[in-house]
């Protein structure tokens, strides 16, 4: 069985950042860094990690303001550049100079920004349901969802709310799977109720987010880096036109479409696992 270490490091601006390190002492393959979607926590990668860790070391981190990482006193610091720099500092703390990144939504944006600023760190990238252009319908839906009341009597109720607010087009996911998905975003408070496992300021920062710069420049930085994009069949985050343009810009670009999924694929679907296995066999 792999060993699991729960660790933290302190950023240059004084915030303890939590991460999980799954490792096998005998593995000599490139480490795999999992970066979550906005507001999700590192534990959500546990299922995928148990599948992959037989051959590789896996690291998963909580974004600042989320999960077991510290809250930032200034909500305006909850941005892509701060997250990118936190990744750099975590890799430095572990003395790692080359990794493969799988990024879900926000995590994929960070992977592209790393490719643009420190391509030497990136041996490969899996972009889960996001690209250089974010569908406006999805951004507006997420901003509305962050503004709604998010305190629930149970994880089951939270899962039903997530299905209603974010994934109504998903028809092939069980209630139990939605409950598991809710556990990646919510925690049980002292009163037994499920509440978001992130700083309320994080949601404020997301609601005020504006597109920053030309993300096509960041995607083009992946030109020499092996890349796989995973898209949910019903995704309005990574729209089909954007995926086509990504493929046109990068000759060796790999894609996988996951049936019945709206953003984001959970990465435990057979199609996702097969695509990731095939990709990692080449990196």
How would you explain this protein's 3D organization?
- With 283 residues, the protein is of the alpha/beta class.
- It has a single domain, classed as Rossmann fold.
- It is built from ten helices and ten strands.
- It has helices at 46-52, 80-93, 106-117, 136-147, 155-166, 175-182, 200-207, 215-220, 240-249, 270-280; strands at 3-10, 16-23, 32-35, 58-61, 99-104, 122-128, 186-188, 194-196, 227-232, 254-258.
- The strands form two sheets. Strands 1-2-4-3-5-6-9-10 form an eight-stranded mixed beta sheet, with helices on both faces. The chain has a two-stranded antiparallel sheet with strand order 7-8.
- Helix 4 (136-147) runs antiparallel to helix 7.
- It is globular, with a radius of gyration of 18 Å.
- State the distance separating the first and last CA atoms: 24 Å
State the helix count.
10
Main sheet: strand order: 1-2-4-3-5-6-9-10
Shape by Cα distribution: globular
Helical fraction equals 25-40%
What's the CATH H-level superfamily name?
Alpha/Beta hydrolase fold, catalytic domain
Number of domains: 1
The secondary-structure element order is EEEHEHEHEHHHEEHHEHEH
CA radius of gyration: 18 Å
Kindly name the structural category. Answer: alpha/beta
Q: pLDDT under 50 segments (min length 5)?
A: none
Give the overall pLDDT as a whole number: 86
Q: What percentage of amino acids are in beta strands? A: 15-25%
Blueprint (SSEs and pairs):
Blueprint: E1 3-10, E2 16-23, E3 32-35, H1 46-52, E4 58-61, H2 80-93, E5 99-104, H3 106-117, E6 122-128, H4 136-147, H5 155-166, H6 175-182, E7 186-188, E8 194-196, H7 200-207, H8 215-220, E9 227-232, H9 240-249, E10 254-258, H10 270-280
Parallel strand pairs: 3-4, 3-5, 5-6, 6-9, 9-10
Antiparallel strand pairs: 1-2, 2-4, 7-8
Helix pairs in contact: 2-3, 4-7, 5-6
């Amino acid at each position: 069985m792999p060993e699991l270490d729960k660790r933290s490091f302190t950023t240059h601006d004084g915030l303890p950042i939590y991460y999980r390190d799954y490792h096998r002492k005998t593995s000599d393959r490139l480490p795999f860094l999992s970066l979550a979607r906005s507001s999700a926590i590192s534990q959500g990668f546990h299922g995928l990690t148990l599948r992959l860790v037989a051959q590789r070391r896996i690291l998963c981190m909580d974004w600042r303001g989320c999960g077991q990482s510290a809250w930032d006193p200034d909500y305006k610091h909850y941005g892509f550049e701060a997250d990118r720099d936190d990744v750099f500092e975590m890799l430095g703390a572990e003395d790692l100079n080359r990794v493969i990144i799988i990024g879900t939504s926000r995590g994929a944006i960070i992977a592209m920004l790393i490719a643009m600023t420190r391509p030497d760190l990136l041996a490969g990238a899996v972009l889960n349901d996001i690209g250089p252009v974010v569908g406006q319908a999805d951004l507006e839906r997420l901003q509305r969802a962050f503004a709604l009341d998010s305190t629930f009597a149970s994880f089951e109720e939270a899962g039903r709310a997530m299905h209603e607010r974010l994934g109504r087009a998903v028809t092939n996911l069980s209630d139990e799977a939605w409950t598991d998905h809710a556990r990646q975003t919510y925690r049980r408070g002292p009163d037994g109720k499920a509440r978001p496992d992130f700083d309320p300021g994080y949601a404020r920062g997301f609601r005020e987010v504006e597109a920053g710069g030309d993300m096509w420049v960041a995607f083009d930085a992946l030109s020499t880096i092996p890349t796989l994009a995973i898209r949910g069949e019903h995704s309005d985050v990574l729209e089909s036109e954007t995926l086509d343009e990504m493929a046109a810009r990068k000759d060796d670009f790999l894609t996988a479409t996951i049936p019945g999924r709206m953003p984001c694929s959970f990465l435990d679907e057979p199609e996702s696992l097969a695509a990731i296995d095939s990709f990692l066999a080449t990196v």
